[in-house]
Automatic annotation (TrEMBL):
InterPro entries: DUF4440, NTF2-like_dom_sf
Domain of life: Bacteria
This protein's name: Cytochrome P-450:NADPH-P-450 reductase
DUF4440 domain residues: 6-112
Species classification: Bacteria, Pseudomonadati, Pseudomonadota, Betaproteobacteria, Burkholderiales
Spans traversing the lipid bilayer: none
Amino acid sequence: MDEHGIRALEERLKQAMMKSDVDALDALLADDLSFVDATGKVWSKADDLNGHRYGMQRIEWLDVEEQGIRLYETFAVTVTRVAIAGTFAGAPFAGSLRYTRTWGEVEGTWKVVAAQCGLVAF
């Protein structure tokens, strides 16, 4: 995998998140995913998919402001800053987040195996 390939995967992930496309997310997330959100809560893949499936989280706007990628033989790490807006559990939110994602080769396919996001001060 090269940088262009990881950027393409990140774009597919962004589009899937914005559309709450559960099938696309299912294909991009590892079965044993661990995602730590901005509150410190750990989400599994099922948690994340269900959040989109049942409308608990909706992303209305997501703009990638910067992104760095580090490549290794069988994994890559991305650090991405985004401006984001949407609703969570019916409550509106907007802000700036920084995501760190680890993409790994899982049975020949690249997937997000771990991720964490945090709030960025304006």
